[in-house]
Design a protein that fits this description.
Elements: E1 8-11, E2 17-23, E3 28-33, E4 38-42, E5 46-48, H1 58-68, E6 74-75, E7 84-93, E8 99-109, E9 114-121, E10 128-134, E11 138-146, E12 155-164, E13 167-168, E14 172-177, H2 180-183, E15 187-190, E16 195-203, H3 209-214, H4 219-250, E17 254-256, H5 271-292, E18 296-300, H6 307-318, E19 322-326, E20 337-342
Parallel strand pairs: 17-18
Antiparallel strand pairs: 1-2, 1-5, 2-3, 3-4, 6-11, 7-8, 7-16, 8-11, 9-10, 9-12, 12-13, 12-14, 15-16, 18-20, 19-20
Length: 344
């Protein structure tokens, strides 16, 4: 389908509507959204707006479906290999054989049952919450992740309580973010599911109940171990305090997104690839600024037509760690930079 300037279109993945402001190429157009932001969009991700037709956010439907999604738990008949507690993303394909979404499993390749609370947070707010009992030598289905939701850096959070003969063991908290560029490097043959998945490790080893019984401590042994733990914790706290101070001192509070500052040979890249590098660099920089504890940073995007500035603004609006931002005149950067204030 050929798209023209001035046509009203709908984003197929979000349900948002806007107007085409420019045709960049056969595959890309610029769209001014109803909230005023102008963004580049692939023609595969839009369709012509039809008056009277209802457009819902498909991600919302998917999230609601995922929350109630609960197929049967998978059990293995082969002996436990004690690989640990894992999270596997099993690829599901559309009718054309292309990856469409990923079914998420909590894989319990240990000798103990595990009680768990699970939450997956997405930037769009379409979160999934679930709790249950992951039995030994089984794969517990947690829900679905859409292919395009990989770009939202899903944050998976687990609270786990391995069971004992006396009830629950101590709580073990684990979490990780799924980064698209690393996700496709994590394909491994997965226990219990009998195939390849994108695999993440939560807990690498749980002692068996027999091992726990052997490890019963005397009061003297317990007191000595707790004292040693506190000593190590104090040393670690001192180390991380010094480490964080150094990290903060080394961090640059200005990010220049001019493409020649980001790659060695920018001439070899087309406009879409350049924009990809700029956005990825921006996302990583903000993430690092939050981690080291900076309160104010500047993002240099230049003037031009304002496309990069508008995309950055749209990302900052959705970032939970951003307090406010502005594109006012600066004595050093003029109007070519956005000042970002991060939450304390």
């Amino acid at each position: 389908m050929e798209f023209l300037e001035g046509q009203r279109v709908v984003m197929t993945h979000t349900g948002n509507d806007g107007v085409i402001s420019a045709v960049l190429s056969e595959d890309m157009v610029k769209v001014v959204l109803s909230d005023g932001f102008e963004i580049p969009v692939s023609v595969d991700d839009i369709k012509i707006y039809t008056t009277g037709e209802s457009y819902e956010n498909p991600k919302k439907k998917t999230a609601e479906k995922a929350a109630s999604f609960h197929p049967k738990e998978i059990f293995s008949k082969t002996p436990v290999t004690n690989t640990g507690l894992l999270v596997g993303f099993e690829t599901r394909y559309d009718y054309d054989g292309n990856p469409e979404k990923y079914r998420i499993y909590l894989i319990n390749d240990t000798t103990r049952d595990v009680v768990f609370n699970f939450e997956m947070k997405l930037n769009s707010g379409n979160n999934i919450k679930l709790n249950g009992l992951s039995k030994t030598n089984s794969a517990f289905p947690l829900g679905h992740l859409l292919l395009d939701e990989l770009n939202e850096s899903p944050n998976l959070i687990f609270e786990c309580w391995p069971t004992t003969t006396n009830g629950r063991d101590k709580q073990m908290n684990r979490s990780f973010k799924v980064k698209a560029k690393n996700f496709f490097k994590k394909v491994k043959t997965t226990p219990i599911l009998k195939g390849e998945t994108h695999l993440y490790e939560l807990i690498n080893h749980l002692p068996s109940l027999a091992e726990l019984e052997k490890k019963e401590e005397t009061l003297e042994e317990y007191t000595k171990r707790v004292a040693e733990t506190h000593k190590k914790d104090d040393l670690l706290e001192q180390y991380y305090t010094i480490y964080n101070i150094k990290q903060k001192a080394d961090f640059n509070d200005v990010l220049d997104l001019h493409i020649e500052k980001l790659v060695e040979n920018p001439a070899k890249l087309n406009n879409v690839e350049k924009l990809h590098f700029q956005i990825e660099s921006f996302e990583q920089y903000i993430e690092e600024a939050v981690r080291v504890g900076f309160e104010r940073v500047f993002i240099i995007h230049g003037l031009g037509k304002g496309r990069l500035r508008d995309i950055i603004a749209s990302r900052l609006i959705r970032n939970e760690y951003v307090d406010t931002f502005k594109n006012d005149y600066h004595p050093k950067f003029g109007f070519g930079a956005t000042e970002v204030i991060l939450k304390k």
